[in-house]
Amino acid sequence: MKKIVVAFNIFWWICVAINFGSILWFVLGNTANFQRGVDLVTTVIFMICGVPSLILLMWSLYMLKNGGLKSPFSMLGVTCLLVIMISLSVPLYKNVNTSGWLTENIKIDTMQVTADNQYEYYTELVNTFQRNSSIRLYLKNLHSNEEVRIKLDLPKVSGISWNSKKNFFTTLQPTGHEGKYILKTQKLSPFPEAIFEIDIKEGKAIRLE
């Protein structure tokens, strides 16, 4: 009997670890490691599954700290609660959004080609509306297929108005010097007016205005 009780308590600890992991994973994933706020859907899922999981988790930790299961006669009732705990953990694991944390969430404007037909380019808005957001210029050499991404020193986007057909946030014009271009933000873009000198070989964007 004693071995059964000990084995059950070990199983109980495993369930606690799984439940704690699901709560932690859900919170970290859906806040992009606390880089963004939570939406309504995430809040509802947490209220339905996360809050009961936390209650069962705290109860389990209290019980285990005080010796856990001491008699096999209470095993059935505790088993039912552990089944509920694991059942609540499944939707928490399934409804994790890792975009913007483990993977970048990237939105782009319409692809364009430079006037000298050397590069395809577009603007990348990375992890928009998060604290770890950034803006990059993507370039692809049409002759070598080499890809380059250059970070642009622009303020965080507070709002975007997307056109259903085409969106041109920047223009890239050749300067006559190999590998150097002038990038200008457009009036209908979510960025303030700015001009950059793009040095593709160095992978740098120098703000001129």
UniProtKB/TrEMBL annotation:
Stretches that traverse the bilayer: 6-28, 40-61, 73-93
Keyword Transmembrane helix found: yes
Keywords: Membrane, Transmembrane, Transmembrane helix
Name of the protein this chain belongs to: Uncharacterized protein
Species, as recorded: Paenibacillus woosongensis
Lineage: Bacteria, Bacillati, Bacillota, Bacilli, Bacillales
